[in-house]
Amino acid sequence: MRLNPFAGAYLADPAQVWRRILDTPGGVHHDPELGLWLITRHADVRRALGDAETFGNALTLAPVYQVCPEAMDIIVRIDAPPTTAAADPPVHPRIRRALRATFANTADRVEQRYGPIVRRRVDELVSRLAARPGGRADLVPEFTAELPLLVLLDLLGVPEEDIGRVRAWADGQIALIWGCPEPAEQVRLAQGLLEFWHYCQDLVRARLDSGRCGEDYVSQVLTYRDGDDEVLTVAEVSSIMFNLLVAGHETTAGLLAHALDQALSNPDRWRAIVEEPRRIPAFLTETLRYAPAIDGWLRVTNRPVTLNGVTIPAGARCLLLIGAANRDPAVFTVADRFDPHRPDRRDHLSFGHGPHFCIGAALARLEGEIALARLGATLPGLRLTPDHRRSYKPNVAFRAHRELPVILDPALPAGGRPVPAAERPAA
Ligand code: HEM
């Protein structure tokens, strides 16, 4: 079996390939051209995500292809120490303590600390869309990719005027590591990544030099550090910023785009959300399961490991196919059906599992809930343009819509069917 994640059938709809690998003995497939072991079963993906001793993170942020020498010369100058997704014990537990102490990561704390920021940014963007009744818009640049980045800049204390640069660097990092850029493009993206790293170092240095501690995230991490390199080094603080500025934005952008795609491509689903916003949390959970923003994530084996009779050698790069695990029939009934009412929807692995479980899961969910509720209340007639065809950016990890063209109709279509009470589930 050949897998080309960058084109053709897999790029259009990977579920068929996931099914074929799920059905192979062991649910594990070695792809020599990609240089990756593909792991699909829910139990195995869950185990690999949680077993840091066997499945290490050291190469999680290393490009998935042979980078050209000119780009590699630049990449080796990015001396960011591993902190979050690329760190293994003993560094990772120390950094994780810092993250848990400084970044709100439960629903209550996220609502309390970040809720006002999210509401203000959602209101701004929705008002801009609503000011063009009947007009057309592409929700990707105008909403789904914009909102998480604005929220993140606010809460990390990054100047809004830098939004264009941060967006380009973050997009570039995702293409450089998990995409398939041509050599000249690799060099350009690597140069951008080096600038991005210097930018994060400058942000932290400026906060240190000013001696002023504000409400922003860098200040909070520096206060937590309290000048002690054994708690965190200054380079680690910069590296945390370097990681958060990508992890906290492209992922949530994916969740918003997939949720709106699932809702708007079926008028009954959208109408149900508009009329009954308390359905939104379950809808988002099912979106996470069915269409995860990250559908493959990398680990490297620290020793040989046997999964269902298939032995993977030490030092092997493994692509944990989270998207496939979320469709594993051993866990999910009628796994290929999108159904926000399914009782097993919370068993998805889209935020990871175990020691690296996503620190921003509650923030991403809050953004999704407020965004969908506000869009539904302001633009109940929102719909995809009839000629729209889904297309995604070529990438082995991030599944990101290229566009989401819509008509900004403020009114529900005539003959809108009220949702019968019997169909209304608990949130
Ligand atoms: C729908 C949105 C999101 C998805 C699908 C997502 C997905 C993930 C996944 C799969 C991991 C596990 C990585 C691993 O096991 O190696 C992870 C970790 C992480 N996420 Fe998220 N994420 C989302 C939103 C966010 C947000 C909003 C933030 C922060 C603002 C964030 C920050 C992080 C960080 C820092 C880690 C690394 C944690 C660690 O290594 O201990 N994520 N995320």
Automatic annotation (TrEMBL):
GO molecular function: heme binding; iron ion binding; monooxygenase activity; oxidoreductase activity, acting on paired donors, with incorporation or reduction of molecular oxygen
Keywords, alphabetical: Heme, Iron, Metal-binding, Monooxygenase, Oxidoreductase
Mitochondrion recorded as keyword: no
Pfam families: p450
Superkingdom field: Bacteria
Family statement: Belongs to the cytochrome P450 family.
Protein's name according to its UniProt entry: Cytochrome P450
Protein species of origin: Micromonospora echinaurantiaca
